[in-house]
Amino acid sequence: MTNQAAVGEPEANGQQLTANGHTPVRLAYLGPPGTFGEEAARRYAPEADLLPFPSHAAVAAAVESGLADLGVVAIENAINGSVAETLDILIHETTLQIQAEVVLPIEHNLVAKPGTRASDVKVIYSHTQALGQCRRFLERCFPKAQMEAALSTAEAVELALRRDGDAAAISTRRAAELYGAEILATGIGDTANNVTRFIVLGRGKPPSSGRDRTSIAFTFAEDRPGSLAGVLNAFAEANINCTKIESRPTKATFGEYVFLIDFEGHQDDPPIRAVLGRVRPLCADLKVFGSYPRF
């Protein structure tokens, strides 16, 4: 983890729908078409040129290399919590900045080859996140079915359709339409209020909107009592609301962690500049993932 995310590159934000004022933004997402990632990308920039990639890491790499101008990746789900792959990319693999967030309502559907009956289903495919978000339905209605992970909910439909009428997939309605699948059941998620928060990655910092969120990660040089409390107290004394805190392994030493905080405000706002100035000396490394308009 580096001390600072890269700054000073051309700015991109949710209001910018063209890359240079003339051509549509090239917007990368976790494909193929029909995924929730595509839905989030279409919601963020309906006029964008959408580019599917096979993983969140590939989405970030596409933006870094110039294949895409921006990239949409999932970061948090209301049921399963944070998306570890995305957090690790932000911590260890990229200096891209978060430009915006998109909160997408999630409806899971059980789909299959036309003519398939529920009693025929022996295998159910989907992305691991979707399988986890439909756990109760699957345990109750398909206790003997084999669950198989796919790279995306859209790929899950393709895999199910290749079999001889004994498989189903959990996917979006759009994926069912795109690949010619029949919807066997709708709204099969464990909660009716399921949403996923996506972030848009790009170069540069969006300007302050007056209603922003900032995301940071930090580590400590040594494990001692009060280290984390010192950081949190700095935010509390500055009356800055921390909306989320969690940790991830450093991947260097067992028992050492990277701490992540989301808080209200923009990194260029004077109060935020001041608190980050107080916090930085307390940390071994501090990385700002970005400041972006709150949903």
What would you say this structure looks like, in words?
With 295 residues, this protein is α/β, with parallel strands linked by helices. The chain folds into two domains: 26-105 and 196-293, Alpha-Beta Plaits, CATH 3.30.70.260; 109-193, Periplasmic binding protein-like II (D-Maltodextrin-Binding Protein, domain 2). The protein contains nine helices and 15 strands. The strands form three sheets. Strands 1, 2, 3, 4, 5 and 11 form a six-stranded mixed sheet that branches. It starts with 25 loop residues before the first strand and ends with a strand. Residues 3-16 have low confidence and may be disordered.
List segments where confidence is low: pLDDT < 50 over at least 5 consecutive residues. 3-16
Percent of sequence in beta strands? 25-35%
Number of helices: 9
How many structurally independent domains? 2
Classified by CATH, the class of the largest domain is Alpha Beta
CATH topology of the largest domain: Alpha-Beta Plaits
Q: Could you give the distance between the termini? A: 27 Å
Give the helices and strands as they follow along the chain.
Answer: EHEHEEHEEEHHEHEHEEEHEEHE
Shape: elongated
Quaternary structure type: single chain
Arithmetic mean pLDDT: 90
Helical residue percent band: 25-40%
| CATH homologous superfamily heading of the largest domain | ACT domain
Structural class category: alpha/beta
